[in-house]
Amino acid sequence: MTEQPAHIGDLIGPVIRDLAQYSGRDLNRWLRQVDRLRGCSDPIRVTGEVSTLDSITGEILHRYSTQGEPHGQLLVRCGNRRASRCPACAETYRADTFHLIRAGLLGGDKGVPATVSTHPRVLATLTAPSFGPVHRGPDKHGQADVCHPRRNGPSCFERHVSGDRRIGQPLVPDTYDYTGHVLWNAHAGALWHRFGIYLRRHLGTTAGLTRAEFSRQVRLSFAKVAEYQARGIVHFHAVVRLDGRASEGEIDAPPAWATVELLSETIESAAKAVRLDGPGLDGEDSQELRWGTVDVRRIESTGPDGSALPEAAVAGYVAKYATKAAETSGTLDRRVKRSDLARLEQQGVTEHAARLIRTAWLLGDTEAYPNLAPLRLRQWAHMLGFRGHFSDLARFS
C-alpha cells in the first residue's frame, strides 16, 4: 500500500500542542521570537543574563535573563551571508550590500554627497592565471561556443550549456597544476593588497606626483567582492572611485587630471606589474604569483556606445556575489575534517574540487611543509585555500 503524505491541517494541531507544552506559560513570546527571526533557518540560541548598573551608585537599573524565555533560550538571527546556509539572512546581507554600493556610486545617502556621481568610477575584474585548460561554458551573452577546438593538445569539441557539471573541470586532470592553484588562492588576498599599493603609485607617477603629494590631493575608494569561477579559483570584482580631499576630510571633486581614462589605464598597468614570491616546495625555488586577465569598464548613468555600466546594475552585480562562496564551484560550505577526505564525492563535491581539497589538506601538513604553516591550508581546505575577505569596503560609502 502506498503511503500518502500527511495533510498540513493534520499537523498544525499537534505542533501547536507540543509548542505550548514545551514553551511553558508564554507561547506568544515564543511566536514573537520566531517572527523576529524573519525566516532565519539556523538561529542562534543564546542563554545567560545581562544587568544594567548605574555607573555612580552601582544600583541595578535593569536585569534580563533568558530563564524567563520559552525553553530558557533567546533566539537570534544567525546573520550568515552564505545563501547556501541561510537564504533569509543572506538576502538581508545582499540588500545591505546593494544599498552601500549604490550609495557609493550615486551619493545622496549614507553621508555620501550626490556629487560622487560625477567622479571617475569603474568596475575592475582581476582574475587568476591559467593552471591548465578547463571546460568552458557559455559566454556572458549566453552563447555556448565550441569548448576547446584544437588539433594538437587537449581538446573538446562540445558546446557546454549552462548547468553542465563539466564546466570548469580540467580537460586533463593529471596535468593540471593543483598545487599552484591552491597556493594562488591562499595568496589572493596578499596579491590584492599589493595591487592597491601599486595602483596608488602608478596614479601618482602618471600625474607627476610623489606618493605624499598624491595622498594629499586624491583619495582612492573601492568596494570589492570575491567570486569563485567554475574552475575553483578566486577572482575579484572591485568598484573603484577617485575622490578629491577636502580640508576637513570630506569628499571633494578630484583634480582635473584624475580622469576615468587615467584610472582605467593605471588599473591595468598596476595589475600587470604586481609580482609576489610564493613559497617553494621540497627545495624548489619560490613561485612567482601574479594576476591573469584584467577587465575594466567605466560606470556611468548612460553610455553613448553601450560600453558603460549603469550604477544600479553594478550594485546588484556586486551584491549578488557577496552572498556566494566556494560552494558555487562544487565544494562544501563548511570546514573539512580528516574523515571527509575519503568521501568527498559522496557529499556532492566534484572530482576537481575534491582534488583541490585533498591538495590543500596535503600541503597543510605542517611537518612536511613547515614554510606553509602560516597559510593554515587545512583550516581553509573547503575554501580551496582562499582565506581572505569576501567583501570589503575602503572608505567607499
Descriptive account of the structure:
The protein has 397 residues and is α+β, with helices and mostly antiparallel strands. Helix content is 30%, strand content 16%. The protein has helices at 8-22, 27-37, 87-106, 178-186, 188-206, 211-217, 260-273, 311-321, 351-363; strands spanning 44-46, 49-53, 60-65, 74-76, 121-126, 218-228, 234-245, 251-252, 276-278, 287-289, 294-298, 391-394. Strands 5, 6, 7, 8, 11 and 12 form a 6-stranded antiparallel beta sheet that branches. A two-stranded antiparallel ribbon has the order 1-4. Helix 3 runs antiparallel to helix 8 and helix 4 crosses helix 9. The model has no long low-confidence stretch (mean pLDDT 86).
C-alpha-based Rg, rounded: 26 Å
The count of strands amounts to 12
Structural class per helix/strand content?
alpha+beta
Q: Roughly what percent helix?
A: 25-40%
Indicate the low-confidence ranges by residue numbers. Answer: none
Sheet-strand content, in percent, reads: 15-25%
Biggest pleated-sheet summary:
6 strands, antiparallel
Q: Termini distance?
A: 63 Å
Tally the helices: 9
The helix-strand sequence is HHEEEEHEHHHEEEHEEEHHE
What characteristic shape results from the CA principal axes? Answer: globular
Q: Write down the overall mean pLDDT.
A: 86
Oligomer: single chain
In short:
With 397 residues, the protein is of the alpha+beta class. 30% of the residues lie in helices and 16% in strands.
Provide the fold topology.
Blueprint: H1 8-22, H2 27-37, E1 44-46, E2 49-53, E3 60-65, E4 74-76, H3 87-106, E5 121-126, H4 178-186, H5 188-206, H6 211-217, E6 218-228, E7 234-245, E8 251-252, H7 260-273, E9 276-278, E10 287-289, E11 294-298, H8 311-321, H9 351-363, E12 391-394
Antiparallel strand pairs: 1-4, 2-3, 5-7, 5-11, 6-7, 6-12, 7-8, 9-10
Helix pairs in contact: 3-8, 4-9, 5-6, 5-7
